[in-house]
Specification:
By secondary structure, the protein is α+β, with helices and mostly antiparallel strands. The protein has a single domain, classed as Orthogonal Bundle (Cytochrome p450), CATH 1.10.630. It is about 50% helix and about 10% strand. A hairpin with a 2-residue loop joins strand 7 and strand 8. The longest helix has about 30 residues. Keywords: Heme, Iron, Metal-binding, Monooxygenase, Oxidoreductase. Belongs to the cytochrome P450 family. GO terms for molecular function: heme binding; iron ion binding; monooxygenase activity; oxidoreductase activity, acting on paired donors, with incorporation or reduction of molecular oxygen.
C-alpha cells in the first residue's frame, strides 16, 4: 500500500528545511541517516522560498528517480524545486542548460558534446593535464610553504583545462570564477544572482560570436561546426552550453581537489598507503567522490505524472530532490559509510556524478584531473601537511557545490 503526500508520515507537522548543513565535512548532514531509516521519501521545505519538495535518500530510490522518464529536469515547470531566489520574470527569460533539458532537446545536444568527453578523448588530453599540474606544483615549490592550496592548485588546474578545452582565454579566469562563485551561492539576492548570470553570458556571447566567424581548435568551435549541419542549437543555446561547461568544468573539480587533499591529510595511514602503492589511487578517488558527494542537491526534478517511490506516491507536478550524498551513505550499499576506506570495493557504485541520461558528461575528465593532481602531490611533495587548525577551516555551506574556501598547506 502506498502513501500520498497527504497521508505521509507526520502530515501536518512543520516540515524540516532544506538544504541541511553538514556538521562535519567528511559526513552527510545528520538528518539524512534518520530519513533513510524512517522516512526515506519525505517532505521538506526549501529555505529559499518555503515551498515543499520531496527528498529521496536511499540509493535504490535515487537511482530510480534519476532513471525514470516520468520525471523532468525542466526548471521552468511550476513544481521545480529551485534553490535560488529566481523571480518569475527572470525565470521566464532563462534559456535552459543541458542539465535542465528533457529529451529530445537534451538527447540532441548531449550527443553533440559527448564525443569531447569519451575515455579515449580524455586519455589524449592526459599529457597536457599532467603538464598543467606540474607547472602549478613547480610554482608551489618555488614559492615555498605555506600556501593556499585552493588558489595555488585546486582552482588553476581545472580552470586551465576547461579554458583550453573551450577556447576561453585563461587570463579572464579570475572574473569568470567570481561570476561562477556567485551563481553557486544559495544566499545571494535575486538581483546579485541575475547580475552574475547576465555578466557571464555577455562575456560568452562575444566569445561565441567571435568563434562563429573565426573558429579555432576547441570545443565551442567544433560544436558550432557540427551544428551548422545538424542544427540542434541556436546562438543563445551555444552561449548557455558554454556557461554550463565553463562553470561546471572548474567549480566541481576544484572543490574535489581541495577536499580530497584535506581528507588524505586527515587520514595519514591511508595517505601513506597511496604513497607506497599509487595503483590504489583510482579506487581512492571513487571513495573520495562518494564520501564528499559535493553536488548533493544538483539533481532537482519534477514528476510529470504520479510515480511510486518506495511506499510513497509522488503526484504529478511535485518537486523532487534525489540526494546523492544521502544515497552515497546508504548503509545497505556502503557498509560503515561514514568511514573513509580507500580499499572499499563497492565505492564505484556511488552516485556523485548522478545517474541516468543526465549523468555528468565530464566524469571521465574529472577523474583524470583528480588522478593527476593527487598522484603528483603524493610523488613530488610527500611531506605535505596542513598549515592551519582543521577546526578553523571555512566550508561552503552556503553554496550549491560543497567545498572549502581556503586550504593552507606546507611541507
Amino acid at each position: 500500500m502506498t502513501q500520498s503526500a497527504d497521508a505521509a508520515p507526520d502530515a501536518g507537522a512543520p516540515l524540516p528545511q532544506f538544504p541541511m548543513r553538514r556538521t562535519c565535512p567528511f559526513s552527510e548532514p545528520r538528518e539524512y541517516a534518520a530519513m533513510r531509516a524512517d522516512n526515506p521519501v519525505s517532505r521538506a521545505a526549501l529555505k529559499v522560498n518555503g515551498k515543499p519538495t520531496w527528498l529521496v535518500t536511499r540509493h535504490e530510490d535515487v537511482r530510480q528517480v534519476l532513471g525514470d522518464g516520468r520525471v523532468s529536469s525542466n526548471l521552468k515547470l511550476p513544481g521545480y524545486p529551485h534553490q535560488f531566489h529566481i523571480p518569475e520574470e527572470m525565470l521566464a527569460q532563462i534559456r535552459p542548460m543541458l542539465l535542465s533539458m528533457d529529451p529530445p532537446e537534451h538527447t540532441a545536444q548531449r550527443r553533440m558534446l559527448i564525443r569531447e568527453f569519451t575515455a579515449r578523448r580524455v586519455k589524449e588530453m592526459r599529457p597536457r593535464i599532467q603538464e598543467i599540474v606540474d607547472e602549478r606544483v613547480d610554482a608551489m615549490l618555488a614559492t615555498g610553504g605555506p600556501v593556499d592550496l585552493v588558489t595555488a592548485l585546486a582552482l588553476p588546474v581545472p580552470s586551465l583545462v576547461i579554458c583550453e578545452l573551450l577556447g576561453v582565454p585563461y587570463e579572464d579566469h579570475a572574473q569568470f570564477e567570481e561570476w561562477s562563485a556567485a551563481m553557486m551561492n544559495h544566499e545571494l539576492s535575486p538581483a546579485e544572482y541575475g547580475a552574475a548570470v547576465q555578466a557571464l553570458d555577455a562575456y560568452l556571447d562575444k566569445l561565441v560570436t567571435l568563434k562563429e566567424d573565426e573558429p579555432g581548435d576547441d570545443l565551442i568551435s567544433r560544436f558550432l561546426e557540427k551544428n551548422r549541419s545538424e542544427q540542434v542549437a541556436d546562438h543563445v543555446d551555444v552561449v548557455t552550453m558554454a556557461r554550463l561547461m565553463l562553470v561546471g568544468g572548474h567549480e566541481t573539480t576544484a572543490n574535489m581537489i581541495a577536499l580530497g587533499v584535506l581528507a588524505l591529510l586527515q587520514h595519514p595511514e591511508q595517505l601513506a598507503e597511496l604513497q607506497e602503492d599509487p595503483a590504489l589511487l583510482p579506487g581512492a578517488i571513487e571513495e573520495l567522490l562518494r564520501v564528499f558527494s559535493i553536488s548533493d542537491s544538483g539533481t532537482a526534478r519534477v514528476a510529470l505524472e504520479d510515480i511510486e517511490v518506495g511506499d510513497i506516491t509522488i503526484r504529478a507536478g511535485e518537486g523532487i530532490l534525489a540526494l546523492n550524498n544521502a544515497a552515497n551513505h546508504d548503509e545497505s550499499v556502503f557498509p560503515d559509510p561514514a568511514t573513509l576506506d580507500i580499499h572499499r570495493k563497492e565505492a564505484r557504485s556511488h552516485l556523485a556524478f548522478g545517474y541516468g541520461i543526465h549523468q555528468c558528461i565530464g566524469a571521465n575528465l574529472a577523474r583524470v584531473e583528480l588522478e593527476a593532481v593527487y598522484g603528483t602531490l603524493l610523488r613530488r611533495i610527500p611531506g605535505l601537511r596542513l598549515a592551519a587548525d582543521p577546526d578553523e577551516l571555512r566550508f561552503k555551506d552556503d553554496a550549491m557545490v560543497y567545498g572549502v574556501y581556503e586550504l593552507p598547506v606546507t611541507w
